[in-house]
Automatic annotation (TrEMBL):
Keyword Nucleotide-binding included in the entry's annotation: yes
PROSITE patterns: FOLYLPOLYGLU_SYNT_2 (PS01012)
GO biological process: one-carbon metabolic process
PANTHER family on file: FOLYLPOLYGLUTAMATE SYNTHASE, FOLYLPOLYGLUTAMATE SYNTHASE-RELATED
Keywords noted in UniProt: ATP-binding, Ligase, Magnesium, Metal-binding, Nucleotide-binding, One-carbon metabolism
Protein name per Swiss-Prot or TrEMBL: Folylpolyglutamate synthase
Species whose genome carries this gene: Aegilops tauschii subsp. strangulata
EC number(s) reported in the record: 6.3.2.17
Functional pathway: Cofactor biosynthesis; tetrahydrofolylpolyglutamate biosynthesis
Obligatory cofactor(s): a monovalent cation
Amino acid sequence: VDVAVLEVGLGGKYDATNVVKAPVVCGISSLGYDHMEILGNSLVEIAGEKAGILKKGVPAYTVPQPEVAMSVLKQRASELGVSIRIVPPLDPRQLEDQPLGLHGEHQYMNAGLAVALANTWLERQGHLDRIHVKDHGTLPDQFIKGLSIACLQGRAQIVPDLQVSSECKDTSCPLVFYLDGAHSPESMEICAKWFSHVTKKDAAQPGPLEQRRSGINSKKILLFNCMSVRDPQILLPRLLDTCAQKGLCFDQALFVPNQSQYNKLGSHASPPPGREQIDLSWQLSLQTVWEDLLRGKKGLNGTSSSGASLVFESLPSAIKWLRETSQQNQSTSCQVLVTGSLHLVGDVLRLIKT
């Protein structure tokens, strides 16, 4: 192993990665309200946990943080005699017209941190001579290649449903999944911005076949689940409000349990045939939160909203319903945002690719 990149599992102060007492460099990415049942209910508490990865004598980097979080990081760094440096987002011009492999504006912040960590590792390990440094303001070719081909499944990932498209008469796919495992308020807002942007972009730049199709419509569908330790009263309003600000409204919302909740045998295993009745009380509560939000936002004035959301007893049944709906009305493109849980996103990926 020439270089190992270790990511903490949870927090930092008590994380197992602390068995490495002297890493070459440490980095802390954007902090937000996540794992609050363990890390604390405020950014001050969460930042205190995250600062636990800082080590005496080890250079440290972070990205711009909320002021209360940054002060905690700086205080801990000062106690250890470490100068924590704040890295600005990567300037797209440094990529020399190459696109960033990971989608979303926030990824330029992550890319800036990645460049700082890689540079520091190369310098401290005596490998800078392996990198061809070009004119000031541009990145080495190896950095540009890495940033442009970077791929992270389940984050801002677009996957057309090949089963539906193979059965369609034309080459455009009427069912497309937009996968993002956002599960915190901050990431939910970023997810909503991304989904709004890419679906508008798709509508503004249709393919040649779509240009010839008359009456082409798009239907926005939310496929959602989150762990019971999350607060849907925070997550769903952040998603809905951000989409509304971008001019996007969901036509339907589907709530499902994760496939992995009852399928622990591996990616190709099937649920046990005689399983007991699945408890859908959590999904029904998510549906209630969603319906209440819709009534508050739209002022339904007694209008029935029965078509606004559905609860399915399993993820495969929801996927089957989506496929049948798309096949029955191929003049409408179904754009399905899958979010709320990384487990859900992973389960959807396995189902639509098998």
